[in-house]
Design goal:
With 142 residues, the protein is of the alpha+beta class. Helices cover 30% and strands 18% of the residues.
Length: 142
């Protein structure tokens, strides 16, 4: 199967075998490997083999494949490493903290007092603003 590629992308180079990785799993559309800058032991990535930078441009079926691979790796992490939880994190664009513009999902085993902070403080939102944004989004979804 042919995938779009970007010769300057580090993940495309890993997919093509031009750069080494600690490979966990590979199928026709995805690859999973260990993150070499892990936030915690067991931090891994599920990556689309094709070069689609963000969730808004990747084909839905390939996004589903990446999700299945992330789930497979998360199950393995839960069984092998026995963390108290697992976060799946997928970021889009620099404003969301995406450092490699190639769609990927982080699989983050979590441990007590691991000092990883992904959560936010829950504060009630303005119901009128929420309703207005809901309508704007529904108009685009229609």
């Amino acid at each position: 199967m042919s995938h779009p590629t970007d010769g300057s992308c580090i993940f495309c180079k890993i997919v093509a075998g031009q750069l080494p990785c600690f490979k966990l799993f590979e199928d026709e559309t995805t690859i999973a490997f260990m993150d070499i800058n892990p936030v915690n032991p067991g931090h891994a990535l599920a990556v689309a083999k094709g070069h689609w930078p963000t969730v808004d441009v990747i084909p839905a079926d390939v996004l589903g494949d990446v999700a299945r691979t992330a789930q497979r790796v998360a199950k393995a992490a839960l069984a092998a490493l026995e963390p108290t939880g697992v976060n799946l994190l997928q970021s889009n664009g620099p404003g969301a903290g995406q450092s490699v513009p190639h769609l990927h999902v982080h699989i983050l085993p979590r441990y007590p007092d691991d000092k990883v902070r992904l959560n936010w403080v829950y504060e009630p939102g303005d119901k009128a603003e929420i309703a207005a944004i809901c309508e704007r989004l529904k108009a685009v979804l229609a």
